């Protein structure tokens, strides 16, 4: 039996993971703050106090998505240290289980341009969040050979914090309000949260080790994304690109080389950007 | 007032730190398992359960030497993860205190030769111990600017675990037994534990940041060290170099460039190898 322990099951990405795990035949144990899910052994707990769950559940697979991700705050919050410490303790409790932990594209050197490749692109995290994730990956790779690291790019989807771009545009346009934006020329790699979860689960269910980019592989400008959201919400004229100043030192291009994810893990996103944005706007319509 | 919180005060290096701290005018709070010391605020505690000591003591300076160092076991023990987690939690409790944490020459790439320089030598820890220390340093440097990292080379001195080279030779020769050794051609940087503690404390009392090698800067072969110990114990003829096979993949040369320690921190060892070895053998004579 494949028994998965999932952390962050109440989170933005993690909420989509149980379905993906069940579809691949995993017995699913989830740790989270939210409400129990059908078909899942639900451990309602604060992970910081519950690392011993690994000894009790004895998973064959561990998918660790939980982290502190409060909008804006997470980049340099000391909460990163608490999550790093707890995650390191989890590494000590694996007992041979295969582990996939969530990393971030913020491990890469954002002052460079071009597609990011897991082994040939330079790593130079510039935030405590990125440094903590980088430190965790280095430690995980030294603890066990059966360790993979999903380096997540830019997820969007239902339930995203309301201050972020997609919710801001979706809610503004749905309410008929103009939405001032910056110029939006920076290029990112966006992936729907359900596809991000699917990619993590596919990685967990593979024997691929080391860092694997989790992205769509598609280069989309911030402005294009805003316009796609506005289109799905019914009115592109309300998006006012260039009305807000650009932030200093925004990196130009952060896009994943997804060769490993596609060819080694065998995962491809199920949703196009248009479909994913439509799904997200539909969710906001119902809030 | 300069108030230092010292961890590992019962340890091999740490035992020498209180005197060095007191000599530099620090009010000293120490955490350790051993017996209280005169002139020191002694907190007898397991550090893993006592990270909140930082909030209670409110040190201006933190010297963190504690780690799992059981002879032979520490290189790849999962205890490294527990110490990494606890140390990361300490980073979250500094509240602006200056911090010096203990690193290791095992962060360097041991497959290379030549003197190790803090910024120009390649880092490539090959053990969980080295990786955990490396991860801690990266995290510490991202948390606070007032952070220094003492990269300790090869300490020896009173109280060293009995299975290690210096105690083995000292006890053997003092007992009149022959001591079979390997060829002993590998070159290391040895520093007396009291000088190592003195260097850490000097670093703590300076405003130097980043990694600083803690060594003597002297290249001494393992065989030379064994002979020096035997000489201090009264009979060099009992040391049988080459009677034991050399371990595979022993690195040839691990010696510190001590420019930063000497010129920036302003520290020089107080003991020559001959003096340090004499002190150590005298200690074994009394056991």
Describe the structure in your own words.
Chain A is of the alpha/beta class. The first copy, chain A, has 9 helices and 13 strands. Chain A has helices at 17-23, 53-57, 79-91, 128-143, 165-174, 193-204, 222-233, 259-265, 273-285; strands spanning 3-7, 27-32, 41-44, 61-64, 98-104, 147-152, 154-156, 179-180, 187-192, 210-214, 219-221, 239-240, 253-254. The first copy, chain A, has a 7-stranded parallel sheet, sandwiched between helices. In chain A, strands 7, 9, 11 and 13 form a 4-stranded mixed sheet that branches. In chain A, strands 8-12 form a two-stranded parallel sheet. In chain A, helix 5 packs across helix 9 (273-285). Chain A is globular. Chain A binds chain B through residues 78, 81-82, 84-86, 88-89, 91-92, 125, 127-128, 131-132, 134-136, 138-139, 141-143, and chain B through 78, 81-82, 84-86, 88-89, 91-92, 125, 127-128, 131-132, 134-136, 138-139, 141-143.
């Amino acid at each position: 039996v494949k028994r998965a322990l999932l952390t962050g099951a109440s989170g933005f990405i993690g909420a989509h993971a149980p379905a993906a795990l069940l579809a691949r035949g995993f017995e699913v144990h989830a740790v989270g703050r939210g409400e129990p899910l059908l078909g899942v052994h639900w451990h309602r707990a604060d992970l910081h106090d519950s690392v011993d769950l690994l000894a009790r559940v004895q998973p064959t697979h561990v998918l660790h998505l939980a982290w502190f991700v409060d909008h804006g705050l997470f980049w340099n919050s000391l909460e990163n240290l608490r999550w790093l410490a707890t995650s390191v303790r989890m590494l000590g409790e694996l007992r041979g289980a295969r582990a996939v932990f969530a990393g971030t594209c913020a491990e890469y050197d954002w002052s460079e341009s071009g597609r990011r490749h897991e082994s040939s692109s330079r790593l130079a995290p510039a935030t405590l969040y990125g440094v903590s994730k980088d430190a965790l990956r280095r430690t995980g790779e030294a603890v066990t050979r059966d360790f993979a690291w999903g380096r997540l790019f830019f997820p969007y989807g239902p339930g995203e914090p309301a201050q972020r771009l997609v919710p801001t545009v979706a809610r503004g346009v749905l309410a008929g309000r103009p939405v001032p934006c910056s110029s939006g020329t920076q290029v990112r790699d966006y992936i729907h949260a359900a596809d991000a979860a699917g990619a993590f689960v596919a990685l967990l269910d593979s024997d691929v080790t080391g860092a694997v980019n989790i992205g769509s592989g598609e280069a989309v400008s911030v402005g294009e994304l805003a316009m796609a959201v506005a289109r799905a919400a019914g009115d592109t004229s309300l998006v006012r690109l260039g009305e807000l100043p650009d932030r200093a030192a925004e990196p130009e291009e952060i896009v994943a080389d997804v060769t490993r994810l596609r060819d080694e893990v065998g995962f491809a996103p199920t949703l196009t950007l248009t479909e994913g944005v439509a799904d997200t706007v539909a969710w906001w319509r119902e809030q």
